[in-house]
Amino acid sequence: MPHDSSSLTALLPATIRSRVQSLKLADGVVTAVLEAGDLDAAGRVTLEEEVKAALSGADGVAQVRVGLMAERAAAEAAPKGPLILAVGSGKGGVGKSTLSANLAVALARQGLKVGLVDADIYGPSQPRLFDNEGVKPEAKDSKMFPVPSRHGVGVLSMGHLIEDGRAIAWRGPMASGALGQLIDAWWGDTQVLVVDLPPGTGDVQLTMIQKHKPAGAVIVSTPQDLALMDARRAMNLFEAAHVPVVGMVENMSGYVCPHCGNVSDPFGCGGVEQAADDLGLPFLGRVPLDLSIRTGSDAGQPPAAGEGPQAEAFLRLARQLVPWIKARL
Ligand SMILES: Nc1ncnc2c1ncn2[C@@H]1O[C@H](COP(=O)(O)OP(=O)(O)OP(=O)(O)O)[C@@H](O)[C@H]1O
């Protein structure tokens, strides 16, 4: 008989079972979150290997993802930093970075003090989107200051730290160490930190979410079925880490012809709203596929900072999020 979450947990040795915070099976993928605050680096690697060895190959299991919780006591004792709002997607290229940047600008236009961390450390794009490429962050007491932008949003990205165009080939633990430095920076009176997560739903993402505990997450998807399946995986990932999903956004949902203004739907339309409905999540709204969104982004001018329908699409999303954010500040 195929396994479910409890029969899978029973496959783990008792010493590991007591560490399980959550364990979910969906579409053949097990997502397990374990308490590991007492273990050193070697112990954590062993624990991850043991879990994978115990569950891989079980009936109905195609893949096992492990997220390890650490430094819980230290995190709880630490002074309260800005509220973290993660922006995630199940796969790359759906517009997660574009949405993160414009949401940050749109939230700042609602009067909030907003910062942005580019956690997409393998392909950082925020310095280009905010037109502050090549600016190195200043630091004090080995903590960085955010790099200012023209739109009132401080930004920190691996792209600010590496030489132009140099690919980063880091392994998971180094990657999450680097991300920690971007988040634990001098954010001052910043109220909301929008975190542009790396695309995907693997171990790196899960560990990052566990460690930095966003207050909530927004999932972005394009309307096609394939992207939607990935969005569902992203939701499972946040659920496994006990991070509430604030809602879903449909990006590239209707192509506005720059010549005649006609709207067509190359990727379909309404799929994300339907998926949000099926999953019992709020649907936050759509952003059209619009050439000016790409050209503005490439030129370092976030459309949300301007006027017109493109700006309005992002401002509408931000207005929906403001009450949720204010209730948590
Ligand atoms: N609504 C839109 N209209 C037009 N172009 C868009 C829109 N959203 C995103 N794009 C463009 O699509 C490309 C991919 O967007 P983006 O980099 O934000 O995606 P991503 O999900 O963050 O990708 P990655 O996983 O590579 O980081 C960019 O060139 C961006 O300008």
From TrEMBL:
Q: Which domain of life is it from?
A: Bacteria
Query: Which GO MF term does the entry hold, naming one?
Result: 4 iron, 4 sulfur cluster binding
| Record CDD domains | Mrp_NBP35
Listed under GO biological process in this entry are: iron-sulfur cluster assembly
Which keywords are on file for this protein?
A: ATP-binding, Hydrolase, Iron, Iron-sulfur, Metal-binding, Nucleotide-binding
Q: Give binding positions for ATP.
A: 90-97
Q: What does this protein do?
A: Binds and transfers iron-sulfur (Fe-S) clusters to target apoproteins. Can hydrolyze ATP.
The record's section on PANTHER family has: IRON-SULFUR PROTEIN NUBPL
Q: Its quaternary structure? A: Homodimer.
Q: Its family?
A: Belongs to the Mrp/NBP35 ATP-binding proteins family.
- Protein name as catalogued: Iron-sulfur cluster carrier protein
Protein species of origin: Novosphingobium umbonatum
